Amino acid sequence: MGEYCAPAAAAEAEGERPVAVSVLPLPPVAAAGRYLYGDYDRCSTKQVFDNLHGNISLDPLAREFVDTEEFQRLRDLKQLGLTYLVFPGAVHTRFEHSLGVYRLAGEAMNNLQKYQGNELGIDRIDVQTVKLAGLLHDIGHGPFSHLFEHEFLPRVHPGSTWSHEHMSALLLDSIVDKHAIDIEPDYLKVIKEMIVASSDVSTAEGVKEKRFLYDIVANGRNGIDVDKFDYIDRDCRACGIGSNFQHWRLLEGMRVMGDEICYPAKDYLSIHKLFTTRADLHRTVYTHAKVKAVELMLVDALVEANEYLGISLHADDPEDFWKLDDTIVKSIETAPNDELKKAKEIIQRIRRRELYKFCNQYSVPKDKLDHFKNITAQDIVCSQITSKVLLKEEDVAVSNVKIDLTRGKDNPLESIKFFKDFGCEEKFPITDERVSHLLPVCNQDRIVRVYAKKPELVEAVSEAFENLQLRMYGEKTQVHGTPTKKKRRFN
């Protein structure tokens, strides 16, 4: 310190008045010289520019997680899986999505702290915890995102209850131990609980204090969370889909009442746009007929390769799991194993755009939704009456698509609490009879799509599919029959 005092001492010796130097206090530091949990200054942050949210400031602890190989793996996981083969712009990854959720989680906490910080007892620990939950909520995703969880694993392990949320929690423990990240066990436990809050609502329901914090990143209570805010805006932009949903209105208007996040009643249509925009993305992008055709083919390839590569076995061990990403396709293609011949052929068909042929689809009638069971390839084959060829189950692929507004057949607005204005202490739901009559009466759609794995089977599969509809509903519920030209094209 003496060298910094020397100029002042010399000036005083010469009769000059020393210049007062003010020293800004550094943030509190732990005994080991690290910043305390939730404390940082501008010198300790790193700026990352995101094309959706602009600058994102990563605090020191967040940077430690981001710099791990397990988190960097997210760069090799496309946010929308194979959708880019139909929508070329959909090449963004889980990496930038995770940074975006981290940013929005911080905005939500800053707004709550600004307006209700003293009332709710929000401190730096709460802010840091919610932001880290946003950053790390998707590290447990498998190759091609939801395809691994909802399509591949149920095929190789029927009845599988595996979820990327619980793998994220397991992987988080592994990261902390492997990289010696300095975080209190109690804080880590809360982060994991926030990550699984959407898939395991009972975990969050058992929380006695600050329950509302568990609804910010992954909301299992009513479905409004910053995860949706980010991926809806990001996916719409990447796929060229228009969106007039404005998440900033909800971030600015949110208010905690009775340990529950509530919203101004005037914003109920904005909230409804959140759910309808999500449903539109599912119908036009995520479950696009060609996208599902590619997914069905890739799942067939992964199932064929699983016996020899043990892909599904990695799902049980977080230390092995993080090594799985979208590059698994190249691993299959370059594997010397002759037993992978069939899997390689399917992947080559995808690259040549020789996809399973989409035959037709129908929407399940509204009065049949309650008792609907997924249609299988066996159902299609058993519905064949007359045809030039005899269908087998391996000739047919079926996609059962479910689209809703997050609450099944129910109106999601009924599970959300609203308030009249900021001076009012009463919260209430908005029921169907109070909302605009332009909103849909039914909030759920079930679509059945059928594909022929071989071009020459399009006509036979189409006829069997129509027979199935007649047998189940007494009429053809599809919009129109398979075009005659399409049937003849492959015969």
From TrEMBL:
It comes from Triticum aestivum (Wheat). GO terms for biological process: dGTP catabolic process. It comes from the Eukaryota. InterPro entries: dGTPase-like, HD/PDEase_dom, HD_assoc_2, HD_domain. SUPFAM superfamilies: HD-domain/PDEase-like (SSF109604). SMART domains: HDc. GO terms for molecular function: dGTPase activity. GO terms for cellular component: nucleus. This is HD domain-containing protein. Residues 94-232 form the HD domain.
